[in-house]
Amino acid sequence: MDPDTEVESILRQENKDDEDDEDEEEKKKHQRPPSSYGSMKSDSDEEEKEMDGCDEEVAEDCSSLLPMGPPVSTAHEGTGLQMIRSESPETLYTMTTQQTKPPGAVVIDTRSSDLGDFSDNDEEDMDEVLVTHSPEPPEFVEPDDTMQADENSQPGRLHPEQDLPHIFKSIQGVLSGLTREELYKFKVWFYQWETAITLQQVMDGDLLDFVDRILEVLGQDRALLHTISSLEQVNKKEEAEELKKKCKRALVRFQLKQYLIRKHQVIREGVVRAGRQNMLDTIYVQPHISTCGYGGIDPSHPFPQQPPSPVQVPSPDTYVDLNNFFRLQKADGQPVRTVVTTGIPGIGMSVSVGKFALDWSELRANKDLQFIIKLSFRTFWYMRTKNPLPSKKPEMSVMEIIEYFHKECRGITFLEEEDCKFLIIMDALDCYQAPLDWENAPVINGNHTPAHPDVLIVNIIRGTVLRGARVWILGRRAAVSQIPSQFVDAVTEIQGFSDEMKDEYLTKRFDGDQATKIIAHYKRLPMLQMLSRQPFVCWMVATVFERCYRYRGYGEHPPRLTPFYVSILIVQINRRLQFYYGKGENDLKWLPDDKKLVLKMGKMALAMLERNKSVFVEEDLKEYSLKLTEVAVYSGMCTELPAASADGKRTFCFIHYTFQEFIAAVYVFTLFRLENKNVLDSGLLHLPWKLTSKDQTKSAAGLVQCALGRTLNAPLGQYDMFLRFLCGMLSPDCHHNQLSGCLFSRNSPKVSGLDEAQRLLEQTIQNAQENNRDRVENLKECLREMIQEDE
Q1: Using CA atoms, how far apart are residues 689 and 384, in angstroms rounded to an integer?
Q2: Nearest Cα to Cα of residue 786 among 586, 572, 561, 541
Q3: What's the predicted TM-score (pTM) here?
Q4: Which helix (H) or strand (E) holds 371?
Q5: How confident is the model at residue 37, as a pLDDT?
Q6: Which of 292, 337, 427, 567 has the highest CB neighbour count under 10 A?
Q7: What would the mean pLDDT of 223-244 be, rounded to a whole number?
Q8: 3-state secondary structure at position 423
Q9: Which region, left, alpha or beta, applies to residue 41 given φ > 0 means left and ψ of -120 to 50 means alpha?
Q10: Kind of pairing, strands 469-474 and 422-426?
Q11: Cα separation, 10 vs 461, whole angstroms
């Protein structure tokens, strides 16, 4: 009995007699329902009937090739009427079914095993002649509303050639051309090399059942790849090539997403330790991302009176979801093509790229993007400086670069199509160290036209090559600000974590008890809680405290602040050496130029502190022999502000105002330790503790005395955090343990005379109880920073 006649008989039996006994009901359960793909018929019905009659004979001939399987029954787990397959998208009452239904036909939902749920009106309709045509579905028609939301409330649909109906039809069409013996041999090979499917699942039913089952059990990508591989192994190479050609678009997508999964599935934080890897999906927390960028600087400060901050904070109504970047629209209502994402160093741009790519690869979002191709600016810089292409010519086409790094894209023509919607991710613009000529670069109109990498980058962003591409550019603001505004449709800025996001991130990283202890511990230090707005600092909190809590008794005292800032400085300078100067993880030795950069920036920071300034311009950098790119891009300690000064000059600032105070303290301490110079010694200081000798001012106590003088004689907040960091730098844990081998040589002696500096601070605290009560708490923190030992 063919499937259509069978369905008709089931319905007529139900309408005729509602009092069937249990035996008759059990019999219906084991009858074969229509195919879950809309009752598609094989290309040759005669071949199916012939195969049904000859299965036993072929099984005897090939029994030596297969282990004995379980008894074959007419009702298998894949097609029995009791099978509930609502999770499988192909079993739903789909739009394709609507399109192929002849006038007057009745569509039966095979998800329900109980056919007695029809209403009386339905029974009256069934008395009419049932039209049970099961035509081959036409080419899938994508609906006009391409913004229709899917199950994840994320708009977009797969391209028809990448979707399940096309894969099913292609596999079924190729396999239907095999003879009975060839199909059996194919199934034998398919079963032997695929452990996820059983012999009974392979052998039961007809060809439609087989294709339906492998797609359901293995998924469309794995089923397609294994079908091609099995065809090649049974010497059906022409059929395998035919299937590859039919499903080329789906195969390229699969290979690209496998590359992205391998690259981003595991998040690499700091120094990767064997066996201690974290899965990105497991620990990822999406930060606030705004379409209204003000620089990404957190204006909060322990002393609200200081400093005068020009930084604004975007309102929550400007926040946008990471996966909705390319759902944004321009002012004229057209979808955006080029999106720029920026943020301060350590805000999580690279991690956001990984999450976006993973969500696309796992079909969680942006399914309407046919391909995602990652072309980092590091890639272009590598091609520009190394030129690994066989031709060794200085000019290359954009397709040559794509095919060099993504071999699966060789020979494809999809990217030439105007309606091919795909995404090019171009991250780390700051790593491309050559200037780009946006006005005079020649125009290129062909994807295969060779040109210099500088020219290729300009034309990709212009939109004259890869015309169908959406382009996502990421980089630090001082780098992305060079792109002319007419080539950018939207700018997004990563703002960082809210307080709830910080706790969520730490909770995801650790088990309940440990997460609770770490969250409670870092909140004991309000400044650290403010700074943890940056995901990079949040990771550092997790890493440091996880290690510290291995020691017995840790957590009795609040953590100290200065060691965290020292760690930030070390990590940022090491990243500078890696990202921009090509140093390996084992070759991160600070050179004299690196130390000079830190000291020059510290000198500028101290001068800004004295003037009570938090913003600087390019002329300020020249005053201290600093280069704009080195400071604003490579150092990782400064960023550009989007708003220009009143005279139109570009403005910059440190990643946080407290970091300006810290780097100034590093400069003062470094000169004190290396050159025995006290740069704070400038005249009489009215303090209760008098150091009359010039040599005494060059001791640790003399340095602290000068810093106390500046702090207590200035408005509240101007030097208070600077004093705290300077006292923290005097601690051997910071200057000897952390900075040895970086800023200082390993054989440098520890700073002496801390006992005298401690007594000075204690006496100052006692006097402040009467005269400067608002300073007492900070002075106590200064003392703790200097003398508290890490457990």
Answers
A1: 62
A2: 561
A3: 0.80
A4: strand 371-374
A5: 43
A6: 427
A7: 94
A8: strand
A9: beta
A10: parallel
A11: 61
